[in-house]
Amino acid sequence: MKPDSIVSIRQLNYTFGQGKLKRNVLSDIELDLKSGEIAMIEGPSGSGKTTLLTLIGALRSLQNGSLKVFKKELLGASYDERVRVRRGIGYIFQAHNLLSFLTAKQNVWMSLQLHRELTKNEAENRAKSILSAVGLGDRLNDYPDSLSGGQKQRVAIARALVSRPQLVLADEPTASLDSKSGRDVVELMQQLAREFGSSILIVTHDARIVDIADRVLYLEDGRLTRDEKNHN
Amino acid sequence: MLPIAWLQLTREKTRLMTAIAGIAFADVLMFVQVGFQSALYASALGPHNSINGELVLVNSTYQTIFSMKGFSRRQLYRLRAIEGVEDVSPMYIGSADWKNPENGTSRVILAFGIDPVQPTLNLPEVRENLDRLTEIDRVLFDRASRPEYGAIETLFQQNPALEVEVNETRMRVVGFFTLGASFSAEGNFICSDLTFLRIFKNRDPEQIEVGVIHLESGVDIETAKQEIQKFITSDTKILTREEFANMERDYWANSTGIGFIFSLGVFVGFLVGLVIVYQILYSDVSDHLPEYATLKAMGYRDSYLLKVLIQEAIILAILGYLPGLGVSWWLYELTRTSTFLPIYMTVSRALNLLLITIIMCSISGAIAIRKLRDADPADVFN
Fold it and tell me: B236-240 and B55-59: which strand pairing?
């Protein structure tokens, strides 16, 4: 494991199903993600991209191999340990998954609430300032259903990044957006991540946003086939 | 901490209102059932609780005062000799035909024949009017009797010499008391023992229904009861006032369908509430499944979501309970003024129902929790 790795994967295999129906989803994955690095995983659907993301996010139990996030081994990790890892990660989903009964500010707050060291005022200020940073300073008290798709995704980005996570996992963050707002959203993500020194791992089909990544990985049939530095 | 449960419930006003209305309805249903049940018991037990003595002697077949077999009053008088017994007094009870003075229709009424010198019923208005009962053919009428007996009190105010016909014997109404209608006695009147025997012409004066035993002060009731037990024959039994009342209650609760029907009513109310709250919580969870899964992915524990659901259940319970309590209170008032049933909202009943409502909502919450397991954070990434 390299010393500044946020994520370190060795000999990772993952299968779905039992017996005859058993199917390899991920095979022999080896991967290191450096602190502050923005990496993109491309690949056809069914190639195992999302499974890999959920494994790194401690949302699924490992079957074998080794996966360390924040230097914590996830193979055989307890529920408590996995919850702790999850709290250090910011998640951005294809569907924004904002809580419909909370305002933009309250949604961002939900993420800060997990980090008790902040006072109420600090949390309030942080939520406000990050929403301003994503261009929604005037929509703090709006409910998700009164926001556009792009605005909702920006709230989701604010929610994911407000607690300054070391790692951001994004699953097709632009899939439900038009190309202009998709582009804006990814650039915001990149800008905030740089500011906070977060690493980002993005799973995407969207070729138009490849240029924001430092590194592009290709996953095919559960194997990492290419790993390239991006020179844009 | 954001009050997620509260925010989630209040965000959808229509759903919240439906839930509140449903729970309130369930509460009213339960309040009405338990209210009527205890009111009917209370009025059926009115005479028992008014007994002016510590022990009563009744026929050994006694189940309810609405159908009593008599026993020889010599049995009762013999008990005077027992140490600790201060005095005894007999009471006749019987069903008579009361003719409505307004329209001439007849209706069965419960008659109590007491000794005006040693009254067996301890009712304030009866005590005050005892001297009027010493004259023959005088009765005190229960103003809480059903209106089918006639508007006796109004008529009396217009004509203080009001006469009525009981078992085709003319009687003068000389006063009123309040006991209340119940399951089978829809009305009551009290008269002297002599008047009673004039109304029930074919009765043997030796046969009494209830023997009331007054103990000397400081005598232990249970000890006295055991002592008396030795002296009485097997066709009679000796009961404390509480036992006398409890047997009556047991009769109505168990030997008739009444207790069962009321319990069923409460149970149905409980089920209605249970289903409504479950529906609300279940659809809340299903509608927010991806969001809940997201919260889990962010690092919220399962127990956090569980807590939110339980909080929702309890908030719903309280919000639904309050209007339910209000409406029931109003219904109680309405019933009391129009039927004389002693139906009161007591603190203990209000608290019991609140507890039952919370239990009801918690059970619903506990069932809806199973749906929470479907919130798998690994499924959100799709």
Answer: antiparallel
